[in-house]
Structures
1.
Amino acid sequence: MSSRHHTVSAIHGDMDQNVRDIILSEFRSGSSSVLITTDILARGIDVQLVSPVINYDLPTQPENYLHRIGRSGTFGRKGVAINFVTLDDGKILADIQRFYNKVDRFKNHDDRVMTTYEDSRFDAGQFDSKMSEQLASEAEDAFTSYDEVSETFDVMGLRENLLRGIYAYGFEKPSAIQQRGIVPFIKGLDVIEQAQSGTGKTATFCSGILQLLDYKLVQCQVIVLAPTRELAQQIEKVMRALGDYLGVKVHACVGGNRVHEDQRILAAGVHAVVGTPGRVFDLLKRQSLRSDYIKMLVLDEADEMLSRGFKDQIKEIYQLLPAKIQVGVFSATLSPEALDMTKRFMKKPVRILVKRDELTLEGIKQFYVNIEKEDWKLETLCDLYETLAITQSVIFVNTRRKVDWLTEKMSSRHHTVSAIHGDLDQNARDIIMREFRSGSSRVLITTDLLARGIDVQQVSLVINYDLPTQPENYLHRIGRSGRFGRKGVAINFVTFDDGKMLADIQRFYNIVVEELPENVADLI
């Protein structure tokens, strides 16, 4: 493709972590318009502007199709997936259609070497019904019944310093999966927890782990396995943040980093290890990672972990762990093959399925402002800030260029603002976020890249200067992925061209966004 003058990037598992980070950063920034990769990037990588996805080769497992075409989160995403199908691919294509209960028409054009798959979006209803059907097909005596729902974190019996970490991270009310999934885990039960990506599964198992650790014993007591380096590192960050007041020592052991560095950190002592199966197995075999005190094993994105690609490694790791161990399995989907695998190392697990329609925007008042022209948004924004007494707020725009432009415009009007986007290095981002958290600046302007990572308790207002390009990002923007019950106000600037997206958002979340009332000052 390069020889035909296409600007392409390529990424695969043999590259070290630094190289992968650079390539992904370039792709996110738009420096390259095409990314060629393997299933390694089917999960955990969210690039907002991707359209289309092309399966040059069909996936070898039907469940990977879902993760490829929309980052498990396909649920409602608009886009196009094009599948190249040879004669030999007929069986896997049929398997994919059967797996997702979707048999659509294909149009074959004699004048094109292409097959177009019509209406290839994954349907949320199909997801829910498939998961229910899958679980219902299992014998009831294979599972432990557990129906308790905890509507607040305070009633879960969590350590005080864990609660401090949870609230400092930005959670006010547990999500549906957290309401049902944390308590059985901290009671020592094996669990299978399934919910759509972005519903708080990571915080669910991290909270359970942090509750059960013995902090006086600086030995590895839990292993969390994830299919990709990037996901493992994300989990490490969440666990470290939630355990900030507990003094948790957690380390990510992933390929691409030096084994000697892992060995040095493990020798110094950690409470928890998050990692990819290959590196964790290697360290267990070397006895650099000792299993003597390990009492928990957690599999994230478990459908991938229990597929043929990782299945043997998971078995080998499990065999090196103590006989009595608690197991947690977390995933958006679980194939029958993966579910069958769980029987080999789980003892009557509690099973929890949270459906898509249980996502909540409760507690967040949402409004829109009709703005006739794009050019008038700035005046509307400044009018709001002159009218309202706002503690702190976040403004979302859709491009890095607009972040810089809006920052300059607001600064020139004497507003104290900070700006953050993907081009800034990590140190600069940390400094800016620290200033914003401390209240040195009242306004943070950013893009969707950071919609999931902004955790500031004092934020009372989110403004979508630009509506998100995908409905599911609306959720992440207006409440710190935080659909988790955060109280506040969201104001959406809507031009004529935004009408369809606003309608999509309302339909996606089954909500009504009302026009901004005159008494908005009383709501903030």
2.
Amino acid sequence: MKGRLMGVDYGLKRVGIALSDELRITVTPLQTIQRRGDKQVCREIRELVAVHGVVEIVVGLPLESDGQDSGLTKTVDDFVTRLRNYVSIPVTLFDERFTSIEAEELLRESGRYTKKDKDLLDAAAAAVILRWYLEG
């Protein structure tokens, strides 16, 4: 399959965004959206989808380590329902357990991370979500 995918790490304050290449070989953190509300986030994602030619969006689903719903699971479900009304491409939920931990480890190894750099961590977590989805 071909076509660029977008990874989304949804949070109450920030939303991390990552993109794959057209052949879905590499994944790169793109940016972090400062969340002022779901409508604003959906509009910004819709614009990024158009600019980058995205054919599918993969949104991380926050679950507890045992696979049960977390406090954010319903919030993310509601966001995905709203996002599907803004875009005409598939929006897929994908288990995001441990992605933030892996993203932080990768950033530390690269020497590019400090605790203050939450934006970079959110975009890197979106990249991990997307990479795991593609490897899945």
3.
Amino acid sequence: MKGFDQQKGLKNNRSFTRTPATQAEKQHLPPQMVETSLAGPPAASPLGGSDKEAILELITSRSNRQRQEIIQSYKSLYGKDLIADLKYELTGKFERLIVGLMRPLAYCDAKEIKDAVSGIGTDEKCLIEILASRTNEQIHQLVAAYKDAYERDLEADVIGDTSGHFQKMLVVLLQ
């Protein structure tokens, strides 16, 4: 009996390379690299006149941890808040994308969960995807970020928006 690949006439070619789903950690990001990458033409802001493509390349070619290092290095180099400067220099969807990428992962998760339990209905897939795929440490960071960002208790919001066995499962995942 022929296998699925043979039935469909597909070649059994297994010469593909596995790549991680997220940006791999590179070595420590030196502050000089941040300064060189972020420095634009002189203006009121160190980002003044910055090239959107350069910003996009810098931000998307780094892991979340490295982006947090960039924020700290920028503060040390310029004495300014990078996210505030990005909001000032960028607009629209591009601004939302870049600012979103600059948030710590726990705050991104907190926003997604807040959106999932807000309004009419619940985005159950979102709750499952986030809560079932995070480590205990990441869940604790998420709970703290949710409390910090929204001044609300994550578990109480989840309980208020779900019911039954699904609710019990989510509460267990939040422990």
